[in-house]
Amino acid sequence: MKMKILSLILILTALMTPIYAHGVHINTSTDAQVVIIADKSTSALAQKAAAESSINVEVFEFTSPSQVSHELDHIINDYNLKVVAVAYPDTVQEFISQNPESNQQIRISSPDEEDIKINILELAGENSTTNAKENVKEDNFMIPFVAGILIGLIAGMGAGVFLMNRANSKKD
C-alpha cells in the first residue's frame, strides 16, 4: 500500500514539472539591454562598439542564416530583449516582414561602428519607456500566483481528507 502511494506521488510530481524546456536560446550572462547579432567578420567590430557604449550590450556570433532565423523565432517572445543585427541583414529583414510586431525590438545595422552605436542607443531608449507589452507581462504575474495558491489549497484539502479518513479508519 505504501509503495502504491509513493509511486502515485512520484508520478504526480513528475507530471507537474514545467514543460517550458524549449525557450529563448539567447541567454545573456548579464542583464543586457541590447543583443547584437554578428558573424565571424563583424563580431570584433560589434564587440568594440558594445564596449564603448554606456549601455549593457552583449554580442552573439552566429554561423548561418538558419541559426539566426531560429533564434529570432525565440526572441520575439521576450519583449525586454532588443536586437541589433549587424550580420545576416536579409534573414533579419525577412523575419521582420513576417513578424511586423517585432519591428520595435529589432534593428538592422550596417557593419559600421557609428551606425551600431546609434542603433544601440535607439533601442536602449525605447527599452526605458514603459511599453504596453511590458506592462501586460508584469500584470500577468498574478495569474500563475493565484493558480498556484488554488492548486495548493485543493491538493492540501485532498491530502487532509485522505489523512483524516485514514486516521478515523484506524480508530474503528
Biggest sheet, in brief? 4 strands, parallel
* Share of helix, binned: 55-70%
End-to-end distance: 19 Å
Percent of sequence in beta strands: 5-15%
Kindly give the count of domains.
Answer: 2
Unreliable spans are 19-24, 126-136
Oligomeric state of the chains? single chain
CATH third-tier fold name of the largest domain: Rossmann fold
Mean pLDDT over the residues: 79
Q: What's the total helix number?
A: 7
The secondary-structure element order is HEHEHEHEHHH
Rg over CA atoms? 24 Å
Decide which structural class fits the backbone: alpha/beta
If classified by CATH, what would the architecture of the largest domain be? 3-Layer(aba) Sandwich
Q: What is the β-strand count? A: 4
What order do the strands of the largest sheet run in, or round the barrel if closed?
Answer: 2-1-3-4
* CATH class term of the largest domain: Alpha Beta
Give a quick rundown of the structure.
The chain is of the alpha/beta class.
Textual characterization of the structure:
The chain contains seven helices and four strands. The protein has helices at about 1-15, 45-50, 65-75, 90-100, 115-130, 130-140, 140-170; strands spanning about 35-40, 55-60, 80-85, 105-110. It has a four-stranded parallel β-sheet with strand order 2-1-3-4, with helices on both faces. Helix 2 crosses helix 5 (about 115-130). The longest helix has 30 residues, at about 140-170.
